[in-house]
Specification:
The structure is a homodimer. By secondary structure, the first copy, chain A, is mainly alpha-helical. Helix content of chain A is about 65%, strand content about 5%. The first copy, chain A, binds a DNA duplex (30 and 30 nucleotides) through helix 5.
Chain lengths: ~180, ~180
DNA sequence: GCCAGATGGTCAGGCACCGAATCATCTTGC
DNA sequence: GCAAGATGATTCGGTGCCTGACCATCTGGC
């Protein structure tokens, strides 16, 4: 279970929101459960979340990919680098999507000639997935631009700030069960 | 243009990713553009982004809503609170979705009896949207749970940490054009 | 006044994902 | 060695959102 991969999320159903602090305080009078600083921070995150996801998608579109397709390619690229081969279920696990979704991704990647499916030597229920020569060239060709853009995206933050950010995000992450739970 | 609203994002196409630091350093030898700390931070954000979006959606599903439908209701709730009324295009603008999407959201909300459409007094191209009594009760009924959950989500962070987090997110936001641009 | 362009709502078509059901194959316990 | 259950891939139907094209209505300059 390695990975250098990407995201998941069903429908980025989202919408942006512009918190209005005085509005929140006004509403807080009627709803004592409302914590203005929590809402403001949460909304800021959701907004960035959507901006980032949509910019990411635009970036991949420029290369003729979607985020999902990119993740599959990079997973294969990394795995083959270590001489491993992957099954659809393994890629789905690494990419955090369902096997049903993976079937669809692989179908279009195969149609585009970027990957191929080969019989699994031991288990006839599965097969293994491989980059074609064209697929390998393709991903190698786009990685420099990809990495350069991410470096630029994060350039406004110092290394110390990046560390702090990851810490804070981890704390938010620890609170997420509160949203789903009961 | 007020707001206390929500997200947007076309396809939450995403997938989670588990950065493997040594893997990154290995790849960095082949791709000098790769900045491991930038990638790690970016992947952490994307992962949280997806977790958060999907937990948010699960939360709304429990109340029989989607994020989009919730945003419409809360916008109407806030607007009517100030005695204003909104047109579909205004709600779309506030919610950061297209007018076409708003048509669909309003259709289902109207079918569920939560909102109603009324002729616009001056412009026959448009109409105004209003919460029904049922719609108002409904949103009031769910807001305490909603606000309580967000407060719990953010509970792991102190107020100072929340301020820091918002600052850092704003810096990331400023780098986003690098993803889309050329 | 009147027509060109702006603006508002809708429709059709598409995309990316999911869950549940299905079918094939493997594995276990006996 | 053989059923019962586990596991893998696929298909089908559904959701939520998008873009682009459409028609209706309003507005401004002449």
């Amino acid at each position: 279970m390695s990975a250098v991969i990407l995201p998941r999320s069903k429908n980025a159903t989202p919408m942006k929101l512009v918190p209005r602090y005085e509005r929140l305080k006004q509403l807080a009078k009627r709803f004592p459960e409302l914590d203005p600083s929590a809402i403001e921070t949460c909304l800021t995150m959701l907004r960035l979340s959507n901006e980032l996801t949509s910019a990411y998608e635009a970036h991949f579109t420029r290369h003729g990919l979607s985020q999902g397709r990119f993740v599959v390619l990079i997973q294969l690229f990394i795995a083959e680098d270590s001489g491993e081969s992957l099954s659809p279920a393994e890629i789905a696990e690494l990419s955090q999507c369902t096997r049903a979704t993976m079937t669809g991704l692989l179908d279009t990647l195969e149609k585009d000639g970027l990957i191929s499916r080969a019989d699994h030597p031991e288990d006839r229920r599965m097969y293994t997935v491989h980059l074609t020569a064209r697929g390998r060239e393709f991903i190698q060709g786009m990685l420099p631009d990809h990495y350069r853009r991410i470096a630029t995206l994060m350039a406004p933050l110092s290394h110390a700030e990046r560390d702090t950010l990851r810490d804070l995000l981890a704390k938010v992450s620890s609170g997420i069960p509160a949203l789903r739970d009961p």
